[in-house]
Write a structure and sequence with these properties.
Residues 19-254 form the ABC transporter domain. By secondary structure, this protein is of the alpha/beta class. It has helices at 8-13, 61-68, 91-98, 117-127, 134-143, 159-171, 189-204, 216-220, 242-253, and strands spanning 3-4, 19-30, 33-45, 50-54, 76-81, 84-85, 102-106, 177-181, 208-212, 224-229, 232-238.
């Protein structure tokens, strides 16, 4: 059965899920043995909504994110992006999707140190062979509050500012879905609140976000939370507060 995470927005509009996993299994070979990181996961992430993915270490959180984003191929099952099956897409097609329909934000920012903030943001457009509009690049930097830092290189920016540049870089292609892997994990509490507020603003503007996090406060910023254990979805909550998230996670780790 597919775990659905309805919101008022998606129920009223009837949109296709932004991303859907159907019976997804992901197995890794380790010597003569195999490890099943995902075990028949079925979940639909609503369009225009923000879903957090949580679970104990080794529960399959990052694997789920990577399979949903087309960064890893599934062993079995289907992955649908906006209703289109991308399970068997070729490497070239997946690369094109990651440069247009999919944005990705990492814990470690992954900015190129020799490039300015403006150049880092423009990079996905250049890689996709698209025209780079200085106006569009500046607009997205303005949206994350960094237009005045556009000529600065990563070493000249704080951790929170670097993460905001990374979000701007992910958003410049106007992706269908933004995937975030521990986006506040390397930030202090003040910078984390700023980044979470920015993500909330993006969702309010219609962006779909799927985020892996270990932080109950970060998860509580999302519209819904999915909990994994041993590669399976075992719980979910809609609009929980941080205490409820922490309590549910503690029960999984017990």
């Amino acid at each position: 059965m597919t775990t659905s995470l309805p919101t008022a927005r998606t129920m009223s509009t009837g949109h296709q899920p932004a991303v859907e996993l159907r019976g997804v299994t992901r197995t890794y070979a380790t010597g003569q043995h195999s490890v099943r990181a995902l075990d028949g996961v079925s979940v639909a992430f609503p369009t225009g909504s923000w879903t957090a993915v949580m679970g104990p270490s080794g529960s399959g959180k990052s694997t789920l994110l990577h399979c949903a984003a087309g960064l890893e191929r599934v062993t079995a099952g289907q992955v649908l992006l906006g209703g289109a099956d991308i399970t068997s897409a070729g490497d070239g097609e997946l690369t094109a999707l990651r440069r247009s329909d999919i944005g990705f934000v990492f814990q470690s920012f992954n900015l190129i140190g020799s490039l300015t903030a403006e150049q880092n943001v423009a990079l996905p457009l250049r890689l996709a062979g698209r025209r780079v509009s200085t106006k569009d690049v500046r607009a997205v930097l303005t949206a994350v509050g960094l237009d005045d830092r556009r000529k600065h290189r990563p070493r000249e920016l704080s951790g929170g500012q670097q993460q905001r540049v990374a979000i701007a870089r992910a958003m410049v292609t106007r992706p269908r879905v933004l995937f975030a892997d521990e986006p506040t994990g390397a930030l202090d509490s003040g910078a984390a609140r700023t980044v979470l507020g920015l993500l909330r603003d993006l969702v309010a503007a219609g962006q779909s976000i799927v985020m892996v996090t270990h932080d109950p406060a970060a998860a509580a910023s999302a519209d819904a939370v999915v909990f994994l254990r041993d590669g399976r979805i075992v719980d979910h909550a809609v609009s929980p507060d941080a205490r409820e998230v922490a309590d549910r996670l503690a029960r999984l780790e017990a």
